[in-house]
Amino acid sequence: xxxxxxxxxxxxxxxxxxxxxxxxxxxxxxxxxxxxxxxxxxxxxxxxxxxxxxxxxxxxxxxxxxxxxxxxxxxxxxxxxxxxxxxxxxxxxxxxxxxxxxxxxxxxxxxxxxxxxxxxxxxxxxxxxxxxxxxxxxxxxxxxxxxxxxxxxxxxxxxxxxxxxxxxxxxxxxxxxxxxxxxxxxxxxxxxxxxxxxxxxxxxxxxxxxxxxxxxxxxxxxxxxxxxxxxxxxxxxxxxxxxxxxxxxxxxxxxxxxxxxxxxxxxxxxxxxxxxxxxxxxxxxxxxxxxxxxxxxxxxxxxxxxxxxxxxxxxxxxxxxxxxxxxxxxxxxxxxxxxxxxxxxxxxxxxxxxxxxxxxxxxxxxxxxxxxxxxxxxxxxxxxxxxxxxxxxxxxxxxxxxxxxxxxxxxxxxxxxxxxxxxxxxxxxxxxxxxxxxxxxxxxxxxxxxxxxxxxxxxxxxxxxxxxxxxxxxxxxxxxxxxxxxxxxxxxxxxxxxxxxxxxxxxxxxxxxxx
Length: 515
Known about the structure:
Layout: E1 3-7, H1 11-22, E2 26-31, E3 42-45, E4 48-51, E5 57-58, H2 61-70, H3 75-78, E6 81-83, E7 88-91, E8 97-100, H4 105-116, H5 120-144, H6 152-156, E9 165-167, E10 170-172, H7 177-185, H8 188-200, H9 214-222, E11 224-227, H10 232-244, E12 248-251, E13 255-261, E14 264-270, E15 285-287, E16 290-293, H11 297-303, E17 323-332, E18 342-345, H12 350-358, E19 370-373, E20 386-395, H13 407-421, H14 428-431, E21 432-438, H15 440-447, E22 478-480, H16 491-507
Parallel strand pairs: 1-2, 1-16, 2-12, 7-18, 16-22
Antiparallel strand pairs: 3-4, 5-11, 6-11, 7-8, 9-10, 13-14, 14-15, 17-20, 17-21, 18-19, 19-20
Helix pairs in contact: 1-10, 1-16, 2-16, 4-5, 5-9, 7-8
């Protein structure tokens, strides 16, 4: 039995803690804030409740597996999972609207053909077939296995089987998501639908590799799910499973360093006034045999001294990822029956929006892409005569001293988001009782990621720029977990990172993932 110190109580860290505790290890989690869940938080006021992080759950099988492997009660006995149907409604710049059924290729094809015409549904359906090939080729190395030592193979090989396209007397194949939209989908609305999946993860469709086609495929193949009471309920269930497995949590405990002894990790250094040593009854050092760090790259770099965290030739941590602006709306008037749970209102000028987010000549996008979440959930409102809505939009991640940290800038952006959302919810502004704006600074406070940056899932090709560092480090005894480590960001990926770290610790370096 090893003593294991886990830094952070995010979803990946808790998933690892539960699995390690079941394997017989003594696990203590040290969390800087006063609660668990990382970015999976809840805001409550006047009887209204809102998810301030992810609002939907893809690939619930990851958490089903966690609960099967760590206790008797399956996930469905701990939370109520609901399949969202339609999976999404889309309002395009030209006013066209379409609702896409959940996990039904035939239904999606028919809906797109009816709404967009011109064989649009068939082109999208054919694209999903090719996206499945990319998924089949990368699912194990990019989700279910530790990062390959020869990860350069993943960086160099494009798994998406692009259709040959004749252009200027040359035959080319799409190498980016934007090129798939232009050359294969051949419809501005289909291109916007495709690119919205990249934007939601903070990826520039113009540079995201064609392998990013797996993002819409995952949603199509495995469905879109909601947890009754909000996604925060999933975090609660994982936390309670950890407690049942006798994982110790210490909240308000800021880790200021990783202790090294004899060339390996030997514990964590805690800030004054928050410390308690694992098994020692006091002091500023929590001794441990192994350390699992669920923190962003910049934070990890500050914790390790005297040894490199990453060796030469390893994947470099991704920095400069965008963030998210969230507007929580408490509304008078109940939710109309049949309203879509999720509506994506697409930007009027996609190029200007991409320039704003990822650099270029464009300025502030007056009408950004906005996701509108309208859960049909009585737990989130005081009564049936009121409604809670969450608006989200991708924004640049910026340090606190930058102008984006100016509250007035965010309030102006929130006004623009509400104006956009009215295309999906007519009369929205007149129904607002109050609103709460959650900025990138809120995300930084919850997760510690500089500028409130949000990690994207790992993707193949693209010269490896969208791979994440492996879960082992150059410092023996130190492992990394969560969205900034392999296999990257997102709820399912965080859960898988916990499984991978537990496997590497329990089975050793020969561990090759779940079978």
